[in-house]
Structure formats: C-alpha cells, structure tokens
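User: Design a sequence. Structure:
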C-alpha cells in the first residue's frame, strides 16, 4: 500500500519537515520562557528536543497522530525525564492551558483559521501559537516556486498570511522566513534514505521514492524561492 511505502521512506528520519534549531530559539527570543508547551504534530521530536533543551523548567507535551513517530520521539527524548511527555493523538484535541503551542509545517492539515480557532481555548492568558506555513517570496511568485507549491492550494504572500491570521482574531507578533539550510536539514537525510531504499524497491515504494526525488529536484531548482514563514501569533 502507498501509505505503508510512504512511512517506510519517512521512518527513522531526524525530522519530518524543514526546520532548524535556530528557528525555535528565535521564537523563544520573542516569547521568553513559556512554562507549559505543546508541540502539535511533533513528528519524531526534532523541535521538541530543542524546546526541552532551551526551556529546562518547562513542561512539554508532544502530540502526533502517527504512532511510530511518537515511539521515535520517546526514544529521542527519554533523557529529559517526566517533564517531557509524548502521546499519540490528534492535534485537533489539545489540552491546555498552554503558554505556547508550537506547530512546525503541519498546520495545513487543519488550515490556519481552523487551527487558530480550535486552539484559542487551549491557550493560557498571554499564550501564543507559533506555526510555519508555505509562502511565496514574491508577487507574482517565480515559476519555480509556483511549480513547487502547485499541489498545495492557497499559498500566498506573507501579507496574505497575515490577513488570514487577523481574520482568525489573532495578531502577528513576529515572523521569520524559513529558507535554505532548514530545508537541507530535511531533504538531505531523506534523499540518503531514498537512495538506500531504491535497491529492490517494489512498485509502491518505487513510486513514493520517485515522488520524493521529484520534489527534491523542484526545490533544488529554486532553493531561494521556496519558503515557509514562521509566525508568532497571539489572540487579539
């Protein structure tokens, strides 16, 4: 099955999307020291680990719908003891109060407006949501960027995203463009695994590998134009 083949490729990867420790530390420089943090769609715990290291007094919960990502995160984060907990679950169903909800590269599963509406009652007073979302870096977008995001409807500029945040009843406190190295952190380990799996791959896995390699090729064609915007937002 294609789902099995997809997870075969993505199993045991350090992260499941673009990102870098500097992105997390930048967000915390805006927010300070939140005491209760939820990492929504935490994957194997790459950002959860940085949050735990940077916030030694915080209680942190990672939530992900995929069981083997949670198992990988538990192995990775066991050194932090009981102050970091992981659970298999839907990011629609978070339990607060949380000073920070972190969601890197996964808000598209719900949509910006839906997620911010769902998470408003989860936030403690003064709490914030930090999320990353695809954006075009120019208007109109470059042909390469348009081709990269062709399968993801609704991508707009940073101004378009700010308007969506405002429409959801939030204000944008700060933003940071995620480009270049953060994407390499994701793609290079993934492409190395794809190369190892290529030998002897059956038809389902081969198709998944083809898609991943085609995506990587599209990114390589325009690494300075393919971006996420990391947004720090809070209820207005």
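Assistant: Done.
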């Amino acid at each position: 099955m294609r789902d099995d083949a997809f997870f075969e490729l993505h199993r045991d990867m350090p992260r499941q999307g673009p990102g870098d420790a500097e992105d997390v530390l930048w967000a915390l420089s805006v927010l300070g020291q939140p005491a209760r943090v939820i990492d929504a769609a935490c994957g194997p715990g790459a950002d959860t680990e940085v949050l735990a290291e940077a916030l030694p007094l915080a209680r942190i919960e990672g939530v992900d719908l995929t069981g083997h990502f949670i198992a990988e995160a538990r192995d990775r984060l066991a050194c932090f003891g009981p102050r970091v907990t992981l659970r298999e679950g839907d990011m629609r169903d978070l339990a607060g109060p949380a000073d920070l909800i972190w969601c890197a590269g996964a808000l598209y599963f719900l949509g910006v407006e839906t997620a911010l509406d769902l998470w408003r009652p989860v936030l403690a007073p003064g709490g914030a949501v930090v999320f990353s979302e695809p954006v075009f870096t120019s208007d109109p977008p470059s042909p390469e960027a348009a081709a990269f995001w062709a399968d993801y409807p609704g991508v707009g500029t940073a101004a378009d995203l700010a308007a969506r945040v405002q429409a959801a009843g939030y204000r944008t406190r700060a933003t940071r463009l995620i480009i270049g190295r953060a994407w390499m952190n994701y793609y290079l380990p993934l492409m190395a695994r794809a190369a190892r799996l290529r030998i002897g791959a059956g038809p389902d896995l081969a198709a998944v590998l083809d898609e991943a390699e085609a995506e990587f090729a599209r990114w390589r064609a325009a690494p300075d134009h393919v971006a996420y915007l990391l947004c720090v937002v809070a209820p207005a």
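Residues 16-138+153-180+225-235 form a domain with the Rossmann fold fold (CATH 3.40.50.150). The chain is about 40% helix and 25% strand.
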